[in-house]
Design a protein that fits this description.
This is Rhodanese domain-containing protein. InterPro entries: Rhodanese-like_dom (IPR001763), Rhodanese-like_dom_sf (IPR036873). Keywords: Signal. It holds the Pfam family Rhodanese. The structure is a single chain. It is built from 6 helices and 6 strands, in the order H-E-E-H-E-H-E-H-H-E-H-E. By secondary structure, it is an alpha/beta fold. A 6-stranded mixed sheet has the order 1-2-6-5-3-4. The N and C termini lie far apart (76 Å). Strand 3, helix 3 and strand 4 form a beta-alpha-beta unit.
Length: 178
């Protein structure tokens, strides 16, 4: 009987480890010449759009990835595959926004109504595996809320970055929509 319990526990442990490795996307990745975003602590972050694993709903993200204004400018100029989601409120968006963004007017993405505004662009975001950069007024709480919401909706955390310092820190007037 004791031997059967040990075998059973070993089997459960082996299945748990295997499932963990499969669900965490353990494997190799490659980059396509794009600049590497950084994480909250400044270390390089994975930028593999092919990795389709995502956080389980309710799992709090603690290590957000950031794109600098220079990295985003370079990606736009190279026409790199990229989705840019702007969550500024409509008044701020109309005053200044980066060319080619997907507007949501959802800032700060806390209420169900604000989340519903982001939900409207989910089909477009899910239709590709392109990296996604979230633009908010200052690159802080609203962007983090958006990344968390998108992850909870099944978008891979590995695809999501925040524009460092947000729209307020964007220094390239030539790339603003007129």
């Amino acid at each position: 009987m004791k031997k059967n319990m040990i075998v059973g526990k070993t089997l459960v442990l082996a299945l748990t480890v295997t499932l963990t490795l499969v669900l965490s996307g353990c494997g190799s990745s490659s980059t396509t010449g794009q600049t590497t975003p950084t994480t909250t602590n400044g270390t390089p972050a994975s930028n593999t759009a092919a990795n389709s694993t995502s956080a389980l709903p309710g799992k709090a993200i603690t290590d957000f990835k950031y794109y600098t204004a220079d990295q985003l400018k370079q990606a736009i100029e190279k026409k790199s595959p990229l989705k840019i989601v702007d969550i500024q409120v409509e008044k701020e968006y109309n005053a200044h926004h980066i060319q080619g963004v997907i507007p949501t007017y959802a800032y700060p993405v806390k209420t169900d109504e604000e989340k519903a505004k982001v939900a409207k662009v989910l089909p477009e975001l899910k239709a590709s595996q392109d990296p996604i950069v979230v633009v908010c007024p200052k690159g802080a709480g609203g962007a983090k809320n958006t990344v968390q919401y998108l992850t909870d909706q099944g978008i891979s955390e590995s695809r999501l970055m925040i524009l460092e310092n947000g729209q307020a820190g964007w220094p390239y007037a030539k790339l603003l929509a007129k």
